[in-house]
């Protein structure tokens, strides 16, 4: 189909290198934007993300930052424990009625 642009996907390494061009090599966002045909807003967003957490920026699709992964694990564990508790409550209720 003509006229429909697919959304481009960039690797973590590409994003980090692009950010480093601006932050450490002194290139302007406009220069990098023109050189790599990337929107300036995209580059500014990458810079903001990198500055917030350089170690864990750009985790990639399907990957979470360590603290988010831990939270997801705890939420899953809590849901399992609640389900087990509800099953035990029902079992107690059933066995209490049979006496």
The level-1 CATH class of the largest domain: Mainly Alpha
First CA to last CA: what distance?
71 Å
Q: Poorly predicted ranges (pLDDT <50, ≥5 residues)? A: none
Beta strand %: under 5%
Q: How many alpha or pi helices?
A: 4
At CATH's second level, what is the architecture of the largest domain?
A: Orthogonal Bundle
Overall body shape: elongated
List the helices and strands and how they pair.
Layout: H1 12-23, H2 29-36, H3 40-52, H4 66-97
Helix pairs in contact: 1-3
Walk me through what this model shows.
The termini are far apart. This protein is elongated. It folds into 2 domains: 61 residues, Arc Repressor Mutant, subunit A, CATH 1.10.10; 36 residues. It has 99 residues and is an all-alpha fold. Helices cover 66% and strands 0% of the residues. The mean pLDDT is 86.
In short:
The chain has helices at 12-23, 29-36, 40-52, 66-97. The protein has two domains: 1-61, Arc Repressor Mutant, subunit A, CATH 1.10.10; 64-99.
Descriptive labels:
single chain, 99 residues, mainly alpha, Arc Repressor Mutant, subunit A, 66% helix, 0% strand
